């Protein structure tokens, strides 16, 4: 073995050690132990999807751990707890941002909301995220792996995910507040208010402006109706 190959071998081994240390420091083992304590039949599927989400920065380990620990303390049966986790896992497999879904579930757990109601709320938000993502694609707003030479409407993944998450959350809040899915102008008002309020903080002003310039009231009505239709299947 040449000296260069020896150096390369040691360098690769060092990277593996650093990677393992980072995983341990990130809290993933703690998450795995907490998940295992729930003794769910779908544990392997959930764990795999969540760890993909961690690696893609669509969910933080700490957020997932809070959810699992909250479910462990909550009264209720295993299938109800698994149902919530499977919704989040499905969103992560679909490449959707999931911090908002987990936050909504944790909020419900903290308030003592029945698990079945939490599951319904999280599922509705996940369906809305799918429809919002597809709408943005149709409006030529999409996620790009790099900013270099990106065409107009191409956003870095984190910025695109923030748009998807905030629009879906605004629509869900509107519906949960008793708003009609047929009132497109009110849906647009809700989304406009959310994006404008977060412009310059969670969202870049140019991303909010681009989105609001391209979506219309009828688009949001279709998004909501499609998501509600999916819930009946």
Question: What does the model show?
Answer:
With 233 residues, this protein is mainly alpha-helical. The protein has 2 domains: 87 residues, no CATH class; 115 residues, no CATH class. Helix content is 73%, strand content 3%. The protein is built from 11 helices and 2 strands. A two-stranded parallel sheet has the order 1-2. Helix 2 packs parallel to helix 4, helix 8 packs across helix 9 and helix 9 runs antiparallel to helix 10. The N and C termini lie far apart (62 Å). The N terminus is likely disordered.
Mean pLDDT: 89
The strand order across the widest sheet is 1-2
- β-strand percent reads under 5%
Helical/strand content category: mainly alpha
Radius of gyration, taken over Cα atoms and rounded to an integer in Å: 20 Å
**Large-scale geometry:** globular
- Compute the number of helices: 11
Task: Give the helix proportion (percent range).
Answer: over 70%
Order of helical and strand elements: HHHHHHHEEHHHH
Low-confidence stretches: 3-25
Write out key terms for the chains shown:
single chain; mainly alpha; 233 residues; 2 strands; globular; 11 helices
Task: Describe the structure in brief.
By secondary structure, the chain is mainly α.
Indicate the topology.
Layout lengths: L2 H23 L2 H10 L5 H13 L5 H13 L4 H16 L5 H12 L4 H24 L3 E3 L9 E3 H20 L7 H15 L6 H10 L2 H15 L2
Helix pairs in contact: 2-4, 3-5, 4-6, 5-7, 6-7, 7-8, 7-11, 8-9, 9-10, 9-11
